[in-house]
Write a structure and sequence with these properties.
Elements lengths: L1 E4 L5 H11 L11 H7 L2 H4 L10 E10 L2 E11 L9 E9 L4 H16 L5 E4 L16 E2 L3 H9 L3 E11 L14 E7 L7 E8 L2 E10 L12 E9 L8 H15 L4 E7 L3 H10 L2 E12 L9
Parallel strand pairs: 4-5, 11-12
Antiparallel strand pairs: 1-2, 2-3, 3-4, 5-13, 6-13, 7-12, 7-13, 8-9, 9-10, 10-11
């Protein structure tokens, strides 16, 4: 086994490795070499502006066994979420062939050794704001489909710190049911990366906005043809005084109907792992759970408790 630092000549086998690792991850479609190269350009181009959510001192390690890539990890130094003062270690992506635990451990050890040279106190794995654009849909962390990676992180002292559950509705069909509230709906379309436009539905009463439903094309995340007819609802919000009266369901159904008219056929939505109200609501609207995703964090001051 060889542990090598990433160089551009590894692009082809690494892209193939990434596509193998994510083949069973919901909303992960095969990527092209140039797309993957763009995602890891920070490894070869130097420093980014951490104040703008970028990473500094990025590097990637590749484990090669008998000429074949068996593990890969991409790390850097950043500042996650609203914290713009403390430097933390970041694992943007990690994968290893199922069954090759020793190889996965080797690249994780190499990456942690690199991050510790920056005197960070914590390492975050798969934070939302450092994800590859084409990895899953927005808000995703480390998927349950990569359970071998979750297991290895847990064994090495990482614990779940955040979570997001994803729900799908393939070949959806819906007839909006008005809430009975005296509201006026309007639809705004905006072109994005996808082949179909993104959609925002607004609810107004007496000239005041009381609700909003924002949905975007799966093409925002992937150039693959299969992603283009998927919509992903990224925000559904109702003013407090108007909640509990069916307006949220009406807005969501209306958005799905309008987007179906222009070519969308499948719908996805997600919510925080502990937002039981939203989870219950989406499940009863017609969506079905397809994935649980988690952010992991390791406090370097804590020794991992390993159990066999």
């Amino acid at each position: 086994m060889e542990i090598l630092q990433y160089t551009p000549d590894m692009q082809e086998p690494l892209t193939q490795f990434y596509n193998r690792m994510t083949a069973n991850v919901p909303k992960c479609y095969p990527v092209k070499e140039e797309e993957f190269a763009a995602a890891i350009r920070g490894v070869t181009t130097g420093k980014a502006d951490k104040k703008e959510g970028g990473l500094d001192s990025e590097t990637a390690f590749v484990a090669v066994v008998n000429g074949t890539v068996q593990a890969f990890i991409h790390v850097g130094i950043g500042q996650v979420g609203g914290n713009r003062e403390e430097d933390i270690g970041v694992i943007r992506f990690m994968g290893y062939e199922r069954g090759a635990r020793r190889v996965g451990q080797a690249v994780l050890d190499e990456a942690e050794a690199h991050l510790k040279t920056f005197n960070v106190s914590r390492i975050f794995a798969y934070p939302q704001d450092c994800r590859y654009r084409f990895y899953h849909f927005e808000h995703a962390y480390l998927s349950d489909a990569l359970d071998q990676v979750q297991g290895l992180l847990g064994f090495n002292g990482y614990h779940r710190s955040e979570g997001e559950v994803f729900l799908d509705w393939e070949d959806y069909a819906v007839t909006p049911v008005p809430s009975g509230l005296p509201v006026t709906l309007s639809v705004e379309w905006k072109d994005g990366r996808g082949q179909l436009p993104n959609c925002t539905v607004l609810a107004h009463q007496n000239g005041e906005q009381v609700g909003i439903c924002e949905s975007i094309c799966g093409g925002e995340f992937s150039s693959h043809a299969d992603a283009q007819t998927w919509l992903h609802t990224v925000w559904l919000g109702i003013e407090d005084d108007f909640q509990g009266q069916g307006l949220g369901r009406y807005l969501l159904q209306y958005a799905l109907q309008e987007m179906h008219k222009i070519g969308y056929r499948h719908a996805a939505i997600s919510t925080a792992w502990d937002n039981h109200r939203a989870f219950l609501f989406y499940g009863n609207c017609g969506y079905r759970t397809v994935d649980w995703t988690y952010e992991f964090v390791k406090n370097l001051s804590e020794a991992p408790t390993q159990k066999w």
